[in-house]
Structure formats: C-alpha cells, structure tokens
Amino acid sequence: MKILLSGNEAVARGAYEFGVGFAAGYPGTPSTEILENIARYPEIYAQWSPNEKVALEVGIGASLAGVRTLVAMKHVGLNVAADPLMTLAYTGVNAGLVIITADDPGMHSSQNEQDNRFFAQFAQIPLLEPSDSQEAKDMVGFGLTISEQYDTPVLLRLTTRISHSKSLIVVADERQVVPRPPFSKDAQKYVMIPAHSRGRHVLVKKRAKSLRELSEASEWNRCELNDLSIGIISSGVAYQYAREVLPEASFLKLGLSYPLPRERIKDFAAKVGKLYVVEELTPFIEDQVRALGITVEGGRSLLPDTGELTPEIVAKAFGKDSPREVFNPGVSIPPRPPVMCPGCPHRGLFYTLSRKKIRAMGDIGCYTLSVMPPLEAMDLCICMGASIGTAHGFNKATQGSDIQPVVAVIGDSTFIHSGITGLLDVVYNQGTTTVIILDNRTTAMTGFQHHPGTGYTLKGHPTQAVDLVALAKALGISRIEVVDPYDLAQLSRIIDQEIAAAEPSLIISRRSCALLSRNSAERYLQRQVDAELCSGCKRCLKLGCPAMSLGNEGKVLIDPLLCNGCPVCEQVCSRGAIRAVSN
Amino acid sequence: MNGKQDILIVGVGGQGIILASKILADVGKEAGFEVKQSEVHGMSQRGGSVSTHVRFGRAVASPLIREGEAEFLLSFELLEALRWVNFVQPRGHILVNNLRINPAPVSTGLAEYPADIELLLQKSGRQVRLIEGTELAEQAGSKRAMNMVLLGALSRLLPDIPEDRWLRVIGLHVPAKSRQMNEQAFQLGREKSMEKSYES
C-alpha cells in the first residue's frame, strides 16, 4: 500500500517497521513530529528528555540493553548531545542506534543553519541523507543494520524540506522481529578510560575503512547515467532540485554520503564531461571530491553556501532559468512576521521590560519574538539556556560601573533544558542577576510538547512535575517571586524590587499559554474600545497585540475575531477606554 | 488531467491551510499521480505567512514549485496573494479569498496595507477570481470552514477530478461531527464561488 507521509512521519514508520523498541528526543523544529509519531506506536517505548544530551544518553543505555534505538533532535540539539556522541563513536553500540539530526537550511525556525553532515566526519560515523520520505523510512532500517554490523552509531540527516515534505511511500504491514543481543560486560569497549580509549580510537579508524568499502558497494550510492556531458554528484533534497532542473544529466546520487565512495566518484568523474556537485549549504561533498584531485566545475562559487537551496537557485546556476517577466505591483508589500498570539502571557512581561528600558538577555522560544517592534525587548539570543549565563557574565563584568544590570528571560521548557546550571552558576559565584522564567506550562514554540514541568510524559501519562520554586531554593536562591503576567502593576513592582536586590533572584512569570487556555475552562471576556474615550494615543499599540490596530478615525480597534480576552490592554490605557465586553 | 499540476496554497498561520493542502495532496494521490507536498512549520504558526506547495504528476522530483511555474495560486488572504503572484505562470490562475488580515507592521502603524489588491492582481495578467470565503463558510455553518470553500473553488479548475473523490477525501480528514458542514462548505465553494469572475 502506498501512503503519503512526511519525512518525519516516514522515519517514525521506519522505527516501527524495523523493530525499534526505544526512542528519545527533545522537541525542535523541524524534528518534533518524529517522536510525536513514534509515540503513537504502543510497541515502542518513547520519551521526551529534558534535553538532547540526556536523550542520547538514555538511548545509549537502551542500545546497550539490547533494544534497537532511535534518538531524534534538531541540528542545534546535536551540539548539546555532541559530548556523548563523540565518545559513543569509540564505544560503539550493542543493538542498533540511529541518531536523527533535522537540519534547518534557511533557518525557517532556528538560530543558525549549521551543516550537521560535519558531525559524521567529526565523529567518524556513517552518514545517511534521504531525498524523500521513502528513503527516509528505508534508511532507518539500513541505518539500524549497519549500526549493528559495524558497531557504530549512525547519523541520519534530514533537512526541513525532507522532514516537512510529503511523498508517497510503500509501507509494510509487519513489524520486523529483531533479536535482542544480551549486554555483556566489556570494560575495554564500554568504559572509556584513557587506556581503553586509545585502543578504541584505533578501532574507529579501522571501522572507518570498512565503512568506506561499504559506501563503495552500497546501493544507496547510485549512479544514474544519462547524457554524459554533464555529471552531477548530489545528495538529500538538493538531488531532487537538480533532477528537476537537469532531468537529462547523469547523476551520482549519494545516500550514504560519509564516508564518501572515493572510487565510485573517480569512476563517475571519468565517465562524464563536466562534473558538478549540487549540495545545500557547505561544500561538504565538493571539498572532499576536490581533495581527490578531481576538477569540479564552477567550484564553490556555483551555488551559494548560505541559505536554503531552491529549484530556482539551481536553475540559475545552470543557466536553465527561463527568462520571464516579473510583475511589479508598484506598491511595497509589508512583511508578515510571526507574532506573539493575542492573549500571550509573555506580552505583559515584555511590555513592562520595554517601558522600563531594562535590557534582557533572551533565550529560545516563542518569547524570542519580543525582539520585534513594537516591543523590541530582547538584547541577546544565542542558544538554549544561554540567557542566564550571559546575563550573569554581563552583570559581573559591569559590576561597580554605572551600567544598568540586565535580566535573564527564559521559558520553562528551556530552563529545564539547560538553564538550571546557569542559575546555579549565578548563586555559586555570588551574582545578583534577576532571572525571569516565563512559565507557560508547555513547550509552546514547537507545538505544545510536555516537559518535566508539565506533569505529563510524551505518551500522555501523568508523572511527577518538577517544582520550580523548590528547585530554585535547592540551588540556593532565596528570593523567589511567582507573578501573574496578566497583572501589570504587580509585575512592575516585583521587577523593580528584584533588580534592586543585592542577591540573585528568580521571578516566575506563570500563566498557561493562551493557545492552551483557550480550550480550558478559564474564560475571559473580550475587550472593546470605547471610541468616545479613546484619545488615539497609541500607547496600547505598543503591546504589539495582533487583535489591535489603529482605525481610520485614529481610534484603536480590537478585532473580536482575534481578541482572546486577556486584561492586559485594559491596564495599559490611561483613559479607561478599553473595557470588557459585557455579556 | 494530463501532465503535472503545481498548486501553491498561501495565507496566514491558523487559517487551516495545512489541512487544505493535505486534502489536495490526498486527492492527487487517489487520482493515481505521484504527489509531493511541502510546507513550513514552526515560527510561521504564530500568525506569520504560511505557504504550502502541492505538486501532482507522473513523476515529481522537487517538493518545491519553481517560481513562475504554479498553475494555481490558492490564497486565503489578499496581501498574501500579492506576495506570491510571481510564483504563478503568466497565464495561471489566482483564486483569492476576499479577506484582509493586517500583518503586525500594519497593525502597529509601521507599514501600510496596499489598497486595491484585487486590481493589482488583475494587472499581473493572471486569471483572478475573488472568492467570498468568509461569507460562504458562514452559510455552511462556520467561518472556520473557509478552507473547504476555497478547496471547492479550486476543484472547479481541476475538472478531471470528480466531486465525490473530493468529498470522500474531506471525510477522511475532518472530524465526523463537522463532516456535513465541511462538505457543505466545499460544495458552496464549488458552486457559488465562480459566479463573480474576473478574466483579464
């Protein structure tokens, strides 16, 4: 039977069909749906971990226990998991272990567009790059097999256009029954003390050689000979773009793209006239091909090494873009950036910080959108959990100067992911930084995934929820305030009070995500503007609420279709012009 | 239907665009074609621009439509139609919902929403049809069924796909309790939306 599945759904299907019994990950676009879909199979134990490092570690444990395992994360998540990965490459596995990295070229929803193919080279482990959903599913099976045969973790690299594109795939009805290898004590292999690691590193190099032989022979590296005047080496979604634009060309399509099949490449290069490499982002394949002494046409300048590839970019590079008239509407088209939703509990907090001109070291989540006008309330965003360390560093370095201290702003899921150690650092090193946790009771940005603070697991089972107040106390924070971000007066008072305090403090700004509470029993009355009282001062528009706009008469309008009924705008209006709609 | 069909569906996060494109892709699959569909998640869910590419054909390589090659643009919002106009073939079709949703820079007074978008779209030389999606969806029972109205309108331009195939696929994708309402919205879109037509 053929069904339409996205790359992420296909990976989950592959996990089911190829006997994966254990899966772990941390949500992150574009990888999130892999674990969400795996969680639907009762045959597979699946969990969200607090972060990617822990996810990979529990995955290693499961593999050692003899269960086929899949661990999924976004590209930057692999940075967090890099520590176990680099040594896992030495120990190898017991049951098959496949790590999915979902890269985000073009940064649809990421802070960078690093090319994680380099992690395979860095760790000396095999790299698989599917070009559609069928390959994504099949490569899970192939990856598990070679993981076991070659005693290695395997990196399966998706990109946004593979993860979130649907194509037809053939599914099997049966789930493969796989043997469960017993875990046998083997300190030389598994306990990485220097004496053992030295020996393992030699084995890693030997394994790399065998993997190269596998790559030479593998059907995943496929030669498609056609017009021999143009030969293209490609992988992943870039292969599809190249095939679309140059259907007549010859291809060497790489599915097992590290280690590269050097002999096959030499062979292909000898057969074709002009040899090109079409790949997205960094010239990962191209530079290795050139190192073989093979001439690559156009070189690094043929395609851009930043941003997402598109069929147009490939077409232009090969002079295949058909000249056509571009219609110019003669007006400027305003952008439509994503915004914080109506009723978002973060809005009141950022409005308060913005009005007080308090600088905020930010973090990764919906709340990063507060950087946009009109709030413009964020001064830094680097990576998950970085807000607290960066704020502490900034405040320590400016201590005693007349520079105003900064606050750290971090979401609940992000705090649990990697903010806890940062907070400990503030306490340990006698900082005075104020940390604000935006506790909206979910991982909102990626679509409401549970985390250790919500009280539910990935499979929806009730569990112990971490008590953030007790946790902060245990770390040594004695000043802790829990505030409702819908109460602007309280928020303003507490922020002033805590920033002034000469010791570290934590403010937990707690209210459920507006998109979650919309469906709960908690209901609010929608707000409306009394046009008689509205002076058109636009102060409320500084909230950046998508439900509010300036009408033609210079008075503010609230769109009843969009208003979520939060009381924030009402508190901002000095003329009392915004009121709840009476029932 | 012979050869390939490239259909771009655009609008604003939260309008039901992803569901519409899933239904369209499934309809293409049922017609026996190879299908690819590509969408962007993540940041775009928060009221940002959303675009999904749906491609049918005997063989489809790229999941993305090439600029200037879409036969159809189905836009759930006026400004979004203008944003994507150049993705449509010079003589391609634009079906646009007669709905204005202000993007944030317009709400906050930092930018202006272009006037007379309908006229601008016509100037582009494409075949433009304005659809009263909100009104027709309300007639069917809920504004939220606007995506079905727009699919209904699109279905008229894909004459090789019979109506019952659309209805069957819609039934697979919507909850049982709202099935009838969604079907009605689709049919209203299919029957009524073409009454007002602008051919350039």
Class from helix and strand fractions of chain A:
alpha/beta
What would you call the quaternary organization? heterodimer
Shape of chain B: globular
Radius of gyration of chain A from the CA trace? 27 Å
The helicity of chain A comes to 25-40%
Question: How are the strands of the largest sheet of chain B arranged?
Answer: 2-3-1-4-5-6
- How many helices of chain A in DSSP terms? 22
Number of distinct beta strands of chain B: 6
- State the helix count of chain B: 8
Q: What name does CATH use for the topology of the largest domain in chain A?
A: Rossmann fold
Biggest β-sheet of chain B, characterized?
6 strands, mixed
The chain pair forming the largest interface, with residue counts per chain, is: A-B, 59 and 57 residues
Short description:
The complex is a heterodimer of chains A (583) and B (200). Chain A has 583 residues and is of the alpha/beta class.
Model description:
The complex is a heterodimer of chains A (583) and B (200). Chain A is of the alpha/beta class and 583 residues long. In chain A, 35% of the residues lie in helices and 18% in strands. Chain A is built from 22 helices and 22 strands. Chain A has a 7-stranded mixed sheet, sandwiched between helices. In chain A, strands 14-15-16-18-17 form a 5-stranded parallel sheet, sandwiched between helices. Chain A has a 4-stranded mixed sheet with strand order 9-11-10-13, sandwiched between helices. In chain A, strand 10, helix 11 and strand 11 form a beta-alpha-beta unit. In chain A, helix 1 runs parallel beside helix 2, helix 1 packs across helix 7 and helix 11 crosses helix 14. Chain B is α/β, with parallel strands linked by helices and 200 residues long. Chain B has a single domain, classed as Pyruvate-ferredoxin Oxidoreductase, domain 3 (3-Layer(aba) Sandwich), CATH 3.40.920.10. Helices cover 37% and strands 22% of the residues of chain B. Chain B contains 8 helices and 6 strands; from the N terminus they run βαβββαβααβαααα. A 6-stranded mixed sheet of chain B has the order 2-3-1-4-5-6, with helices on both faces. Chain B is globular and about 45 Å long. Classes of the chains: A alpha/beta (583), B alpha/beta (200). The interface between A and B is large, with 59 and 57 residues. Strand 8 of chain A pairs antiparallel with strand 2 of chain B, so a sheet runs across the interface.
